Prior knowledge:
The chain is mainly beta. Among the domains are: 35 residues, no CATH class; 72 residues, no CATH class; 74 residues, Immunoglobulin-like, CATH 2.60.40. Helices cover 9% and strands 29% of the residues. It has three helices and 23 strands. A four-stranded mixed sheet has the order 1-2-3-4, with no helix packed on it. Helix 2 links the parallel strand 15 and strand 16. The longest helix is centred in the middle third of the chain and has 15 residues.
Amino acid sequence: MNNNAVISNNAHQDNFFGELQRTRFHYHDTLPDTTGVPAGWIIDYKGQLHQWNGTSWINLAQNYVHPDYPLTNNPFQTDQTSGLLLLSQILTNSSGHVIKVAGRNLTNADIVSIFLNDATQSGTYTWSSNKIKTYIENLVGQSLTGALIYQPGGYTPSTTQGSMTTPSPVTSATIKTGMVWVITANGWVGNEPVSVGDHLIANTDDASNTPKNYQIIEKGIPDIVDATDAVKGLIQIATDVEAIAGVDPNKAMTPRSTKAVLDAKIKSKTWQIGDGSSVTFPITHGWNTLNVDYICYRNTDNRKINISCVATSANDVQIDVLAPLTPNEYRITLTARLD
């Protein structure tokens, strides 16, 4: 076998309860050195599993016979043909083994009767799910304040300067702070002219038809400024070169420049490996970096395979496997991120 084909895991390995198939414990003809080794190491010592407990080796092949503690009483060992049997007692001995199980039947006195009544609120009755849903929706609609709450139907302003038409609330019975209406016609809100597309926002509950109780937001933007990370405004598109450089804080990237950045910064290529005899495969990628990741699949079933992949230079890696591969048995994709 190829001794270079080794995968090192410098971390705990969690298989999420998956089976460990086709594996062997490390074989030893003599017990290995345990200096600095924590308890729990398991090896194959002359054909028998041994475990290091922190002070000595324990032969796991020794048979263990579990003591038998028959239950003195177990009402659950037979079928229950009527009623509902509840567990009422578990008795253990000094070793922690269960020696007695007791139960009792559930009686009418143990059951609290629940009655459905959507017409009242009390500690005796319960509501249906539809009643609860409607109640909560109404309660939320009546109590929401502070958020911008869109009101369907829009708002038609007064046609007379100095007057105001009261908006119609939809999500609750009264006007709440944060309700928003889209203005559907040109007109007036008090002495403020408004036009189609403007927004009317209530800034207090029960705002009625008092203009000072509303904020008007115009759809037009009178002053357009350059956009920053704190201010909305105009922005210029970056060239591919500027996008790849990544230093200009005032220009935006397009799908084309994003692709140019990814093509320049992320390198990826797939090779087919396997020739019927080799267990070592040198690959030249030419990316001038040691930070190369890999993923490998077996072509016959597309199963992901863990192999040994070591960077031998900034432009080369070496693949090692345990046994020779058939021609093009594996495909391996190398990926690197360049600075």
